[in-house]
Design a protein that fits this description.
single chain, mainly alpha
Length: 355
């Protein structure tokens, strides 16, 4: 039984996101479409889809978790099939896609050693994350909310601190990350506490490093041999980042299952990664980047899923970046396009104030 549960989680958290990532990468040029980019894009699309589907149900239904599980599973299946179909069509249209990747090259002995060191640091973090799983005061709300959802089928209608019925919790109802954890638990039949304190760390810690790796590739495009050093530096910063309870490293290593950690370690670095790639000044002429815009739009939906604080934090990050890029390129369309990607944040912010 345990093997089956693990296989279900592998399907939902790895295979399905990879298939879903084929949808936006269909609209990205070949030189930007790598295996990490497909997976990064896919998980973002999956989380955004959950947010779009779950929030109306949370608001409208007192007992709606069963509906969320059924509907979300169907939507994931449809998106996965769509990604596979689009990729088959793309490959048939351009046989060069089966050729060797554009940026592949042989690694030196020094680089191999450096990558081994980096992987060792990450494995150390994962082992310590599992062996020293920490309890946080917010567990009394977020993890219990996931548990209540799986056991009672309710959606934010029971107060975790007392177990008594209550009206919908507006502060948390628009950020449905605990409900997504409940979905993983419900589908795999693994207790929500185990999913939160163990499974999500195994997923999101490497996922965070994949984002930083893509950032490093863009920054060090002409000095790719320095990428493993960059990744070692990032990993060490996370190992020794517990200088405060408020740092992103602290949240990544000790509070991975909370929406605030998703915001700090996935959404904010993700925005930086996407902006670096969308506005790459050295891109080839005719480079297709429409898929990256789709992913940025979806990432803003995920930001709203993680925390209500994202409404102004992510919008401010994108807005400031848009102003700088608009002045540099002397093109007002850049700012307008980035404003469009922030529409989900505006909508969820308005819902929080008006509902």
């Amino acid at each position: 039984m345990m093997v089956l549960k693990i296989l279900i989680l592998v399907l939902i958290l790895i295979i399905v996101p990879f298939a879903c990532g084929l949808v936006p990468t269909f609209f990205i040029s070949r030189n930007r479409t790598t295996t990490p980019v497909i997976y990064l894009s896919g998980l973002i699309m999956c989380l955004a889809l959950f947010q779009l589907m779950a929030v109306p149900i949370v608001i409208a239904c007192d007992f709606g978790f069963g509906l969320i599980k059924t509907l979300y599973t169907i939507l994931l299946s449809v998106m996965s099939v769509a990604g596979i179909v689009l990729t088959v069509f793309k490959v048939r249209k351009d046989k060069k896609l089966l050729a060797q990747p554009a940026f592949s090259r042989n690694l030196t002995i020094e680089e191999i050693i450096e990558w081994v060191v980096f992987v060792g640091i990450v494995l150390f973090q994962l082992v310590m994350f599992m062996r020293m799983a920490s309890f946080d005061g917010d567990d009394a709300y977020y993890v219990v909310q996931s548990l209540l959802t799986t056991q009672t089928d309710t959606l934010y209608r029971i107060r975790p601190y007392t177990g008594l019925s209550t009206s919908i919790d507006l502060r948390h109802s628009l950020a449905v990350f605990p409900i997504w954890i409940a979905y993983l638990s419900g589908m795999s039949d693994i207790h929500p506490t185990i999913v939160a304190h163990h499974i999500l760390g195994i997923l999101l810690i490497p996922y965070t490093y994949l984002i930083y790796m893509e950032i490093g590739k863009n920054i060090l495009r002409r000095e790719r041999n320095k990428l493993p050093i960059f990744m070692i530096f990032v990993a060490i910063m996370h190992v020794f980042g517990n200088v405060s309870i408020y740092t992103n490293a602290t949240f990544l290593m000790t509070r991975t299952w909370q929406g605030k950690s998703l915001l700090a370690n996935v959404c904010i670095p993700g925005v930086i990664w996407l902006l670096l790639n969308i506005f790459d000044s050295e891109s080839q002429e005719g480079d297709r980047r429409l898929g990256l815009w789709f992913v940025l739009f979806a990432l803003n939906i995920v930001a709203a899923m993680s925390s209500t604080a994202s409404v102004f934090l992510i919008a401010m990050l994108i807005g400031v970046s848009g102003l700088v890029l608009t002045v540099r390129e002397k093109n007002i369309q850049i700012l307008l396009r980035l404003m469009i990607t922030c529409v989900p944040l505006v909508v969820y912010g308005a819902m929080f104030l008006l509902i």
